[in-house]
């Protein structure tokens, strides 16, 4: 990338990067701290031109889960599911309640957030409570494009469960669990797929598909990938009145799709290992095969794109480009492709480490260490987890390797940390969670513990544990215990479990 071409050594100590500002600026990540590099802009808060990385010191975040950027504002989601915004606030895109710029703002009044997305002058967030929040200005070409200086909740039908969100330049869309797409925004080129180019103030369903798997928005175009594998583009030149969705042909089966809000450019990968593109600069009814080895490479010198589906092992809006310094640089399976290409088709490219791994609970070969027998063993324990009525003898290395939450927590803590107070969680549920980290198996004493374990899995972004909790819940939910389980779900404010209880209650209550 041009930003690093003349100084590739800049990347030596930074494992992850978010490129923005038309490819002229970047936020570098090292040990979950942020560093500014490149052309000055409001996101750097007057740090000036940064020919060498300068630490962004005004954040108090716990780790980095996701980064998104608009034209002149940045948003970070940390591992406490808290949102931080900074940069230009002329359109209320920081959610502070005013238009003061270069102001870091911690969104205290939001529920725990799991996804973020930025448009040109706005911010979109999806909570674990199935709520979509919006702040900023979605479009500035009409008096109807009102500034929302504080987060507002977008209204959807009560019965839908939202899976993903996407913000384009002046538009937004969500997909629910049934594959229905809801869209709203500027729509000046008919990009929302509603058959017109009128401004859409409130979410409207796109009723063209039987089911949508992915939706992603560029500048004036929207891409839809259906559950049956079809690929459509909506939006046309302002001089045209053709609002029909355009079917785009492509080889193989789509495995991922990417776009960024500032350009009508879409990239896909397929099951043949190919990276293909479709762009407004060369519109066609078919994708074009590229020489890129990575879907993000299509957006070289432009912007870090959103890539769908979101990989639970990667961080949204962040390119992982190089492994830690302990890796052996002569044993390369992927390259630091921000300065040269790499043979990979995902947004994560790593180097092979000569250091044996220890993140496997059960294997005894292949460089993995079996830690399953070490659960609550006092010998060699270097950390005590205090519970309300008990304690757990734990090992920092195991927690660091097995848990994203503990990894971030330990990196932020003093090296002399000896005790963690987790007495706000129930002892039974927390023990089951820690034992799961050691053994890879979930053992519960009572079904009432499942919602709390699920909350811990959410905190840790552990999709496998979340799915196992759901499976156990459905297996144990019966008519004789539905009331007790309803209260346990309610106490944890877990809507997904409350919905399961509601179904059973409707069947058995008069």
Automatic annotation (TrEMBL):
Keywords: Repeat. RCC repeats lie at residues 32-80, 81-129, 179-228. Residues 381-446 form the BTB domain. It comes from the Eukaryota. This is Putative e3 ubiquitin-protein ligase herc4-like isoform 1.
């Amino acid at each position: 990338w041009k930003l690093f071409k003349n100084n590739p050594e800049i990347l030596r100590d930074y494992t992850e990067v978010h490129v923005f500002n038309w490819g002229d600026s970047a936020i570098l990540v090292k040990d979950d701290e942020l560093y500014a590099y490149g052309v000055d802009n409001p996101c750097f808060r007057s740090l000036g031109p940064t020919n060498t990385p300068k630490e962004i010191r005004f954040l108090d975040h716990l780790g980095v889960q996701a980064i998104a950027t608009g034209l002149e504002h940045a948003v970070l989601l940390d591992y406490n599911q808290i949102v931080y915004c900074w940069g230009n606030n002329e359109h209320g895109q920081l959610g502070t309640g005013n238009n003061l710029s270069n102001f870091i703002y911690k969104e205290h009044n939001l529920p725990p957030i799991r996804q973020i997305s930025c448009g040109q002058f706005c911010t979109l967030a999806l909570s674990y409570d199935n709520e979509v929040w919006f702040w900023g200005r979605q479009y500035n070409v009409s008096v109807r494009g009102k500034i929302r200086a504080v987060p507002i909740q977008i209204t959807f039908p009560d019965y839908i469960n939202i899976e993903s969100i996407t913000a384009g330049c002046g538009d937004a869309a969500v997909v629910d669990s049934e594959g229905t797409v809801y869209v709203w925004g500027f729509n000046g080129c008919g990009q929302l797929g509603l058959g017109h180019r009128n401004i859409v103030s409130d979410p409207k369903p796109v009723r063209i598909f039987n089911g949508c798997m992915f939706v992603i928005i560029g500048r004036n175009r929207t891409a839809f990938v259906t559950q049956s594998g079809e690929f459509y583009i909506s939006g046309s030149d302002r001089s045209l009145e053709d609002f029909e969705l355009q079917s785009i042909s492509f080889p193989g089966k789509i495995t991922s799709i990417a776009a960024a809000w500032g350009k009508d450019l879409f990239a896909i990968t397929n099951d043949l290992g190919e990276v293909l593109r479709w762009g407004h600069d060369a519109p066609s009814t078919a994708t074009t095969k590229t020489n890129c080895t990575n879907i993000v490479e299509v957006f070289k010198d432009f912007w870090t794109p959103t890539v769908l589906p979101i990989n639970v092992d990667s961080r949204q809006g962040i390119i992982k480009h190089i492994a830690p310094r302990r890796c052996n640089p002569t044993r390369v399976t992927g390259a630091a492709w921000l300065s040269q290409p790499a043979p990979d088709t995902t947004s994560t490219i790593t180097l092979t480490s000569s250091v044996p791994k220890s993140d496997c609970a059960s294997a005894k070969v292949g460089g993995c260490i079996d830690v399953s027998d070490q659960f609550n063993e006092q010998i060699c324990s270097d950390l005590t987890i205090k519970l309300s009525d008990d304690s757990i003898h734990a090992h920092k290395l195991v927690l660091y390797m097995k848990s994203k939450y503990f990894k971030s927590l330990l990196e932020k803590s003093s090296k002399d940390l000896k005790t963690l107070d987790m007495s706000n969680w129930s002892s039974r549920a927390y023990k089951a969670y820690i034992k799961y980290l050691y053994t890879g198996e979930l053992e519960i004493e009572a079904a009432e513990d499942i919602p709390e374990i699920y909350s811990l899995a959410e905190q840790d972004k552990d999709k496998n544990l979340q799915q196992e909790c759901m499976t156990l819940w459905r297996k144990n939910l019966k008519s004789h215990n539905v009331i007790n389980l309803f209260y346990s779900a309610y106490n944890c404010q877990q809507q997904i479990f409350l919905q399961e209880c509601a179904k059973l209650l409707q069947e058995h209550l008069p």
